[in-house]
Amino acid sequence: MKALIFAATLALAASPAFASDTTRAAQVVASVAQQIRLNHKGNYADLNPPQGTVMLPWGELTAFSGPYPDTHSFKNFALHIDGVPQADCVAFVSTAAPDFDDVWMAAAGPTAVGGSVFRHGHLDRSALDHACRAHDRVGVEFITH
What we know:
The chain is an alpha+beta fold and about 140 residues long. It has helices at about 1-15, 20-40, 85-95, 125-135; strands at about 55, 60-65, 75-85, 100-105, 115, 120, 120-125, 135-145. The strands form 2 sheets. Strands 1-2-3-8-4-5 form a 6-stranded antiparallel beta sheet, covered by helices on one side. A two-stranded antiparallel sheet has the order 6-7.
């Protein structure tokens, strides 16, 4: 857990001074995902409950790991944040999405149901624009398969 926070702190510190909070937040998402991938040992003890979290400008990014019922694999993981504001949504998701296999979005909140903004394995700009404009704040789930 400390390593996860340290890696995220390094990513923020290494960001250029001119980078926006949105860009730095996307860099943290990419850094956390890369750390999980590089340190994969068949389980994510440091990310299981209590789950690993990293602070972004809009709230906590939470890491969820397998095994998932459909794949029975620990290699799958998701990073989730609620509360991304409409003004930052497109830039944040567009910058972070290429590091993932899918991105799901919905209204921010624990009971919200959303959907994928990927089509044929790639970010669908029209679906992203629609999802970002649908609510003042959104929840975003970055997913690996």
